[in-house]
Each structure stands twice: as C-alpha cells, then as structure tokens.
Design goal:
This protein is mainly alpha-helical. The protein has helices at 2-17, 22-28, 33-60, 63-80, 87-101, 105-114, 119-140, 144-163, 181-185, 187-213, 218-236, 244-264, 271-296, 300-329, 331-356. It has a single domain, classed as Growth Hormone, Chain: A (Up-down Bundle), CATH 1.20.1250.
C-alpha cells in the first residue's frame, strides 16, 4: 500500500500547487471577476465530465490502466499551462488540466476499497498533499511557470509509481457505460453534496483576492490555505468508528458555521478559526458521503467517481456564481450564499434519504 498512498499524496499536491494563485494569475492577464469565474468553472466542468466517464471505465476495465492513463495525461496537460498568455488560453489550458484530474480518483478509491484498507485514512493523505501543495505555493509565490512545471513533474512521478502497481482482481459488473442508475439511486448524498460544494466553490473562486483585500501577503495566503487540509488530514484519520449519516449531518451544520465566521473576519488572521471549522466540516462530509455510496453500491469506482463529478459540477456553478456575486455585490456576498447552500444541502439530504428508505 505504500505506493498507492504515495500516489494519493503526490497527485493531490500536484493539483493544488498550480491551483492556489489561478485567480490572481488570471487577473494579471486582464481577466474580470466574471471571467475568473469562467476560468475556475471550466476546470471543474471538464473534471465533471471525465470523472463520470472514467469512473465507469474503471469498473469495467483494469484499475491500473486507468491510473496510468490519467497520470500520463495529467503530466502533459499541466505542463501545457506554461503557454497561457491571456484569459482565453488560460481557460483552454485549465480545461485540459481539469479533464486529466477527473480520470484517476474513482480508480484510486476502488483500488483501496478492494484492498480492504481504511478509506478515511487514504483520503486523509490527499488532504496532506493539499496542505503541502498550498504551503509550497505560498513559499514560491506567483511564479506560475514554476508552479505549473512542478505540478507536471509530480504527476510524472505518480505515473512511474502507478506503473509499478500490481493489478488486482475485482468483481465483474454488468453495467452500461452511460447508465445513470447509480446517480439516481443515491440522489441524497450526491445532490446534497453538490449544493454544499456550490456555495463553497463560490467562496474559493475569489478567496485569494479576498485575503489580499484583508491585508494578507502571498506567504500568508498559502499558510491560511494550508490550514484547511492540515486539519482535514488529522480529522479524517479518526472517523472510522462514526456512522456515515451522522458524519454527513455534522458536516453540513459545521459548514454553515464556518462560512458565517468568514463573513465576520475583520482581518486575514481572523480567517484561520473559520478555516479550521470548514476543514472539520468537509472531513465529516466527504468521508461520510464517499463511504456511504461505495459501501452501498456494487460499482465502486463509478460511485466514487460520481462524488468527484458532483464536486466538478459544483465547481462550474459555484465558480460562475462566485464571480458574478463578487462582481455585482462584493466578496462577502459569496459567503452569505455559501451559508444558504449548506443549509439547503442538509435539508435536501434529509428529504431524499427519507424518501429512499
């Protein structure tokens, strides 16, 4: 399991190395807040598409082959971002990068599940990768070419590690490539997660700019972002004994509290307690939702991939709403919207799960 754990850590670190300063980089290329929303959203849209396609492919074919393909495409597409020179070319480059990011997560989760390892502990390594990636990006600053090249390099290492993985036996499932049965049978966890994450992405779309407005330097932006996954890493590893539905309920409630605290922050240092609360809420919600659908359904990679698809779909809608709200009403309006979406997600989960019982 050492190789697959290293892959989870490195892949997540590679993703966020060039993620943190995309809004600032896009603004430096002349993008408006609304265009920044489109740039962030196209990444999530392409992730949504590839997560749906390749989750199903992983259930029907070899997991190792899907991993190799995904990491190879990621290494190439993240490298191509160095050629972005204006908002349009950056949007195209992020679309390619986002597509590559959606290929491998479902296969990774399925691989770990079939090896009978703790999903919470495995997912926590991704959060550790996010923490290191955010902190490293804060140290490097807005040198985007260096960040893009480092992301590509770490994805190349993931490819080499995946090449040495042993393929595993898994149950054969009789599925259609384009069936929506799994999505519809699990509407509660999927669509409620979509609502909550829509609000969150709206905030994260403009969050580096909000922190700059509050007086944060590049280093502090990286450090504040690193707090979130650092707490996730510690919390996710301790959730094995808690029931999935209980985790989900706590996750939605804490999310609303966390985003309220961001609205009230008078300076960037006061953001940190809110980031800790939001980190705990996402730990509960993501682990609980992923475990619930993977344990409930025979098509493990598809079930896990659809979680990523919901995150991608929320990334599209949330980024557009975040850019639009910030342009028209100001940064804090996105946080008010996030609180509303968290509460709406909680209610939707309760209603849909009661109907499916």
């Amino acid at each position: 399991m050492i190789r697959i754990n290293n892959i989870q850590f490195l892949a997540n670190m590679a993703n966020v190395l060039s993620l943190l300063f995309i809004p600032v980089f896009a603004e430096s290329l002349g993008a408006t807040y609304l265009e920044i929303g489109f740039i962030v959203g196209i990444f999530s849209a392409s992730t949504l598409l590839s997560s749906f396609i390749f989750g199903r492919v992983a259930d029907l074919h070899h997991l190792r082959s899907v991993l190799l393909f995904g990491f190879g495409i990621a290494a190439a597409s993240f490298f191509l971002q160095v050629f972005a020179r204006d908002p349009s070319s950056l949007m195209l480059a992020r679309a390619l990068a986002g597509f590559s990011v959606g290929i491998y997560p479902g296969a990774l989760i399925a691989y770990v599940h079939y090896r009978k390892q703790s999903l919470g502990r495995f997912i926590s390594l991704g959060s550790l990768g996010w923490m290191v990636g955010f902190f490293a990006a804060g140290l490097i600053g807005e040198n985007m070419n260096r960040l893009f090249l480092l992301s590509s390099f770490f994805y190349l290492i993931c490819f080499l590690l995946a090449f040495r993985l042993r393929d595993i036996e898994k149950p054969q499932v009789n599925l259609s490539y384009f069936s929506l049965d799994t999505l519809l049978k699990n509407a509660g966890p999927y669509f409620a997660l979509f609502l909550r994450h829509t609000g969150a992405v709206g905030v994260w779309t403009i969050f580096p700019l909000y922190l700059l407005q509050l007086g944060a330097t590049d280093f502090w932006i990286g450090l504040i972002y690193a707090v979130n996954p650092a707490v996730q890493f510690l919390v996710m590893r301790r959730l094995d004994r808690l029931g999935n539905e209980r985790l989900i309920h706590i996750g939605y409630s804490l999310s609303a509290v966390g985003f309220v605290s961001l609205i009230l922050a008078p300076s960037y240092l006061y953001i940190i307690p809110g980031m800790i609360i939001i980190a705990c809420s996402w730990s509960f919600l993501y682990v609980g939702s992923t475990r619930l659908v993977v344990e409930r359904n025979p098509d493990k990679a598809t079930s896990a991939g659809l979680i990523n698809s919901m995150i991608g779909a929320a990334g599209v809608v949330g980024a557009l709403l975040g850019g639009l709200f910030s342009q028209v009403f100001g940064f804090r309006s996105t946080m008010f919207a996030a609180v509303f979406f968290c509460l709406a997600g909680f209610l939707l989960f309760k209603v849909l799960e009661r109907q499916s019982a």
